[in-house]
Design goal:
Lipocalin, 13% helix, 9-stranded antiparallel β-sheet, single chain, mainly beta
């Protein structure tokens, strides 16, 4: 039987084109497993240094298109979207606030950049940027039946919320301060001390904790001064020094690193002004619309509408402290009765806050300045 060469070429071409088609992974493999991170591209710090204790884990919840897990010690959740071999992740929801070291921000930042996925010959999940594998996960256990409510329960049972965390290298160490305790950690040791009030400097933003531990005395000094991590290059607003004195008082270990106060994640929302200096707003106060304030606690910035002009600025946050700084506005001419200037003065005068019943109350030692309502 003779086969015509043009027909043969057509058949061979069809076979080759099928073989060259990009294989789309089956999304079914994503589900019913816990995936544990074993590789992260990018950071100059070794993987074991980024995650010395616990490795990040994720679980895909197909029913609600949500990925749930931990970033090494903090729980988090985020939406995800699938389209063939493409995958993207939304912003992570509120996490717990335990200290995790340098690894957590690297992990969360990389998750936001991912745009694809595939499974390798060993069945491991590779999360990609274009054609490059940036994160690799291995299966650790079956998770049939895990729901978002299960994960929320585990988040709520986490350790007390941290309001300050610091870390350093050579050797790796970390400090986490909550309202009830102070935790000092190294890859080989962990010291938990009941919280105590720091000694405050009178002429600078300096705090010093003098602590007694089972192995001797320890001091932690926090100075508001820009600090650059020696390995990651990340700049944080506080310089931290830890001194450990052995019980014999002769051996002293001095560690230096960088730290940051954690801004309350509940502030990360959009708020509309309801009352100003004790008075409920009326349309006569703001002819166009009431002032709105949108805060980004991840970047410690805010923007919004001041009642006549657009505004933006930065947030300064420490324990029980919130200030609006570097405030700038556009320069439109406002109506004479407009209370924009009164609202801006209240923002600039605010030093403390509280959140209750979806209301944000801004205050200072003189009293309540403004109440804003959370809006969707």
């Amino acid at each position: 039987m003779k086969i015509k060469w043009p027909l043969l070429a057509l058949i061979l071409g069809f076979i080759m084109s099928c073989g060259n088609q990009k294989k789309i992974p089956s999304s079914d493999q994503l589900y019913d497993h816990t995936w544990q991170l074993e590789y992260l591209s990018g950071p100059r710090i070794a993987f074991e240094g980024l995650f010395p204790d616990k490795k990040p884990e994720i679980v895909f919840n197909k029913s609600i298109s949500e990925v749930i897990g931990n970033s090494s010690c903090n729980g988090f959740s985020a939406s995800y979207s699938l389209n063939g071999s493409a995958i993207s992740f939304g912003d992570p929801g509120p996490t717990t606030m335990m200290y995790c070291g340098e690894g957590e921000p690297q992990f969360l930042a990389m998750m936001k950049k991912i745009n694809g996925y595939r499974f390798d010959a060993e069945g491991k999940l590779n999360l990609m940027i274009d054609e490059v594998s940036m994160m690799r996960f291995k299966k650790t256990q079956k998770t049939k039946g895990i729901t978002s409510e299960t994960m929320k329960s585990s988040k709520n049972s986490a350790a007390p919320s941290i309001y300050f965390k610091a870390n350093g290298t050579e050797p790796f160490w970390g400090v986490a301060i909550s309202k009830t305790q102070i935790v000092f950690k190294t890859p080989s040791d962990s010291i938990i001390i009941p919280h105590s009030k720091p000694i405050l400097a009178q002429d600078a933003n300096v705090k010093r904790y003098n602590l007694d531990t089972e192995s001797g005395r320890m001091s932690i000094q926090i100075i508001q001064k820009e600090c650059k991590n020696a390995m990651s290059g990340k700049v944080l607003p506080y310089s931290v020094t830890v001194e450990k004195h052995a019980s014999n008082e002769t051996d002293v270990v001095k560690l230096e690193g960088c730290g940051v106060y954690i801004t309350d994640y509940r502030l990360h929302d959009t708020w509309v002004l309801e009352t100003l200096n004790g008075n409920t707003l009326t349309r006569a106060d703001f002819a166009k619309e009431f002032p709105t304030l949108e805060m980004n606690t991840a970047e410690n910035t805010f923007h919004g509408f001041a009642g006549c002009n657009q505004m933006h600025g930065s947030l300064f946050s420490e324990k029980d402290l919130l200030k609006f700084i570097k405030v700038a506005t556009t320069e439109m001419l406002c109506e004479e009765k407009n209370k924009e200037s009164e609202f801006l003065k209240a923002l600039l005068s605010s030093t403390t806050y509280s959140i209750e019943n979806n209301r944000l109350t801004l205050s200072n030692p003189s009293g309540v300045l403004a109440v804003l309502k959370k809006i969707d």
